[in-house]
Structures are given as structure tokens and as C-alpha cells.
Design brief:
- It is built from five helices and 13 strands.
- By secondary structure, the chain is of the alpha+beta class.
- It has a single domain, classed as Endonuclease/exonuclease/phosphatase (Deoxyribonuclease I, Chain A), CATH 3.60.10.10.
- The two termini are 29 Å apart.
- The chain has a six-stranded mixed β-sheet. A three-stranded antiparallel β-sheet has the order 1-3-2, with helices on one face. Strands 8-9 form a two-stranded antiparallel sheet.
- Helix content is 17%, strand content 35%.
- Strand 8 and strand 9 form a beta hairpin.
Length: 254
Amino acid sequence: MTDLIAEGKYDFIGTQETVMNPLPSLNQVKFIASKLPKHGSFGRSREVLPNVGEAMMIFYKKSRWKIDPKEQKTFWLSDTPNIAGSKTDLDAGCTRSVTAALFHELKDGRKTGRKIYVYNTHFDHRSEAARQRAAKQLMEHIAKRKQKDVPVVVMGDMNNGEQKPAIRYMKGEPMVLDGIERKPPYRLADTFRVVHPDVAEVGTFHGFKTPGTSKIDYIFISPGLKTISADIIRTQRDGRYPTDHFPVNAVISW
């Protein structure tokens, strides 16, 4: 998996279910970081303790991006987003969180003036209601960001197919969420569909077996950004896959 990530030479990498553990031999965050010496990282566990449990990490290329010290946070997809480890939906399988930060572009060590917000998340795998509430909360957070003229990238395993209400809502379509008709406060574009609007074989979850038909992993972008390319990465070695999902990538520009 780390070989595949390193080969991509990405500016930003969003990982889900990345295990943090006090034992170095079981700490996936530190292991990935050791294989990406040119990248910094930001994130914490979704549980109460910041360094124990699964994290939604953002890795970023240090030569090109500087994280803003005043605009970086983890918030929880619950009614108490600032309380670590909080979960509201009783049907949800897990505590869920979002890692978010503002990044300043660098050239020769100096800020160019261009900035971008990066979000990384993982919606619940069990509760449809929790996924709908997560989409609503995430979009409201994006719409209320401090620098509204700065574009946004959202990466994540949404555990939702393209025709589900949460995804359609994130793409700007009014939807009934949690039993109420809601108009999105913002809209995003699915980078894969910008490039491949009609491709049918788009399953991203495979569980180390035959891929399903549903695309549940996404890279979204805000208006003002342009998609150059986007792919589902189906790399394998002798029939063995690096994770239980196919990774997705995108090349974007201002």
C-alpha cells in the first residue's frame, strides 16, 4: 500500500481507518509517515484518546504546502462536534469524524498567495440516517469556512453510492435528509464523474474479492477548481490488493 501511495507523488493523501497505537509496530500512521519522508501529516484518532484508535489522516507535500496553524481541526459527525469521540446516532456502527485544514501553497519556500481547504472523512457503514446527517453537517461546515473564496477538496469513504441522498445533496441537489426537505448550502463536484460521466464499472469496495458495482469513495472539489484527470486505481500484485477498497485519485488545478 505504501509503495502505491509513494509512486503517486501526491500533493495530498487522505486515508481512512488508519490505526494509531502506542506500540510502534502496530502504528499505521507512523509507518506510512516513515515511507513518505517528504510529506507532513495531520490528524488524530476518532476516539476520545487522540493517539489510540482509527484516524482520518491528511498527508501533504511539505515542499509545496504549509498547513495553517489557526485553521486545522478534527470535528465529530455528531450533535456535539467538538467533543472527542462523540456519537449521536444510536444506529451508527462507529464514531465518525472529519479532519480538516487550510493549506498555503509554497514556491521556493515562500507563500504564493494561493490556498486550499482539504477535508478527509469516513461516513458510517451501517446507518443511512447517520450518513445523511453527516453529509448535512459536513456541507454546513464547508459553507461556513472562514475564507469563503478559498476552494475546497473533500476526500473520503462515504459508504454511499452515487444515487444515494447524501451524495446527491453534496453535489448540490435538494434532498430529503432525515425526513426533512433540505437545500444544500454549497455544492461540490465528483472529480471522477467530471472526467468519466458514463463509465459503468465504478465499484471501489471489493473486500479483497470481486468488486461491487457501487462507487463509495470520492474526491470532491468546489467550484473554481478544474478536474484534469481522475481514476480508480485497481493495482494488484499476483491477485493481492493493498487495501479492501480501490483507491481513487484526481489531478486538479485552479
